[in-house]
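Design review, sub-item: ligand-bound model
Attendees: FS, YL, KQ
YL presented the inputs for the adenosine-5'-diphosphate complex:
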Amino acid sequence: MTEPAITASGLRKAYKDKTVLDGIDLNVAAGTVFSLLGPNGAGKTTTVNVLTTLITADGGAVRVAGHDVATNPNAVRAAIGVTGQFAAVDELLTGRENLQLMVDLNRKAGKRSVEELLERFDLVDAARKPASTYSGGMRRKLDLAMTLVGKPRIIFLDEPTTGLDPRSRRTMWTIIRDLVSDGVTIFLTTQYLEEADQLADRIAVLDQGRLVAQGTPDELKRRIPGTHVRLRFATAADLDSAARIIAGSTRDDEALTLRVPSDGGTKSLRGLLDRLDEHSLDADGFAVHTPDLDDVFLALTGHTTEVLAK
Ligand SMILES: Nc1ncnc2c1ncn2[C@@H]1O[C@H](COP(=O)(O)OP(=O)(O)O)[C@@H](O)[C@H]1O
Ligand SMILES: [Mg+2]
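KQ shared the predicted structure:
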């Protein structure tokens, strides 16, 4: 077994009397994607900042790329790339100038070239324009391209897709998958369960500075309610009939709703609607519910993510 890319044990950090990280243990195998999943304020960026030597912890031990972050931060920095939550691109420079600056600053042998990166990230046409004119998705891509100049083997991505439209998000996912197939280790923070599910080999759920769960996406999803359809009926009699004909459903008599496990695909949805039709039943409301971060939190902690917003 090769050495883990990242390990942390008993990581603690407080700002004045506010505990932000309350004893975090992590182990990230080399060549995998590890996702730290949590709502705003959970402590994701603080964790990334400690692991990447940007801030020092109050307690605990951290090793990244085989080096101790406390005693050998320079060796850690040489091995990693960091794309922060807020893009580090210079707005006044063009895309090409931003990249060139990173190439000039980087003294590593065998670093990537500006042209190679512009092409890889589909930024050739935009390269002459100032970064201030870029969309959120383009800015993120440029930021990540800048991170890749020194060919880091471990990359930290702090909420790489927050605020992006679905298409840009998918582009970013493809880029991340490509990096992993090159053998890079990715430490990714996100507020989206779907993103962690799509990309991560392992997920850790962070709640107010503590890890409340860790495992593979499948292990985690087994602990939370799955995708289901919610049907709402006009009368108790309709709910009654529907509950009898739809196998595996659970009813809520107060809300007059029926909850039906489903993969959410068109085939199973059509089957469900046909079944209602055969019995001349009409639903007043019909919604497909895919589990999100709120479901994770409710299942794991008994509260939703909202309590943290305060
Ligand atoms: N420099 C700081 N000084 C004081 N409090 C901070 C500082 N940085 C972060 N915090 C607090 O620590 C908590 C976790 O923040 P952060 O790590 O940014 O969370 P996340 O990235 O998950 O949204 C928040 O309550 C935040 O207000
Ligand atoms: Mg953050």
